[in-house]
Amino acid sequence: MLRIALLKNPACESCAPANQIQHNFVVLRGIHIHAQSFESDGGQWFDVAPELAAIPREFDLIGDSLPDWVTPSTILPAGTYDFARLQFSRDNASNPAHCGAGVVNCLILKDGRIAALGFASDASELVIQLTNNAKPLLVLPNTTSELHIRLHPRTRTPAWLSFGDAPPVELAGEVATEGVVHPD
Prior knowledge:
mainly beta
């Protein structure tokens, strides 16, 4: 079994209002976990949040509250997993308009400005390596594992390389797996 939580980032109270992020809205439409393989097939991706494909969910990644549980316990075959792929919606119909017209994933700054979030790929997805002290995630039979995902905005390096309408801010992230495996 696998449970996935999105951890919230605290608001930076000491930041200048022009740089202080009040909200970081993202709309998730899928989460997949990659099974590591030593065969020539390269492994397999498992959809661990199939409900998001039908109904994408919006999350605010800023706040002091408890993590948002993205999935109930999902059955996952025992094995070794090395990557998580988060897919984000581009469809404004699933967005309750926090980001404004035509923008789905965004930052809202304390001074009221809204900045669209971009992605390193045109697929609106983020692939994060799963490691537990430099080792892939090991899912054992008859256990429940938890992935704690923390996403945060980062400025593209260098920001002036953002050509055309590409937003200068994109998402980055990490996954914590240490100490979160429990027997069922």
